[in-house]
Amino acid sequence: MTVAPQRSVSATRRSLYRPSLRLEKSLLRDGCLRLAAMDEVGRGALAGPVTIGVLVVTERIGRVPDGLRDSKLLTPAARESLISPLRRWAKEFAVGHATAVEIDAVGIMAALRAAAQRALGQLDRVDAILLDGKHDYLAPPEECQPSLFDEPSGSPSMQPQTTAPPRPPVHLKVKADLTCAAVAGASVLAKTERDRLLTGLDPYFPEYAFAVNKGYGTPEHLAAIRRHGPSAVHRRSWRLVSDDGADAKDFPDRSSDSVHGSAPDSFLNSEAEMVGQ
Fold it and tell me: Whole-model pTM above 0.85?
């Protein structure tokens, strides 16, 4: 009997987080010609957009770039170093956003849907979509399951406007960003693009240190909200609370302040996009 050599614990742990194309290639074998692997970042942030990355997989996809992991497991420098290899590897990719204004207007699920449709709308039509998680946020509102972070939706006229075609079949995979290389690639594209946007906001809103916290609820960020109130790029519907218990909506609207008014409109009112093909 041949006994396989025992692997070290650290090597085993590393292999657990090394994504492959196993699921993506299985879907291609089932008849899909163009698979859109998709992941989101920024869902739980207090400020800035929610962002969706999409990476297209075809039978011509090559070897997974060295060092690719879920974006949350990588340092900022490692993520940046992967951008060029990912673009060469995938050939077709896109990133879409939905702003804090839109999140406040329609809720996080509708905003995720809008960001995803904006990303898909930049690409040639795909045959199927692979989503990380267990919620299909691309589904029409009547099909969507409630989200932990969701807010009550606005009226139909308040839904973000998109020009996306009817959606292809959607496949859900929990922890796909850890196990599926194309989803991990999409997460890196989305994370680096959103981080650049928040870093770009920092000079316009220096009191919130967006370059450091990227809009997430660090203790320092929460303290800045209590001290200054929410900015024009905060999600005011998320009931950000001050020390005295005031709701974020109770703070003065600072969107017309001179420093805030100098911020690019794309940060405040419309989506920014990245596309490659």
Answer: no
Task: Check if the beta carbon of residue 98 is closer than 8 Å to that of residue 114.
Answer: yes
- Using CA atoms, how far apart are residues 121 and 124, in angstroms rounded to an integer? 8
The three-point CA angle 64-65-66 to 5° equals 115
Q: Are residues 163 and 217 in the same domain?
A: no
Residues 170 and 228 in one domain: no
* pLDDT above 90: residue 242: no
Query: How confident is residue 143, by pLDDT bands cut at 50, 70 and 90?
Result: low
d(CA 233, CA 103): 11
Quick one: average pLDDT of 78-97?
Answer: 97
Q: Could you tell me the residue range of the domain that residue 147 belongs to?
A: 18-191+267-276
Closest Cα to residue 48, out of 275, 264, 228, 241?
264
CB 39 within 8 A of CB 151: no
215 shares a domain with 187: no
Tokens 């996809």 belong to residue: 61
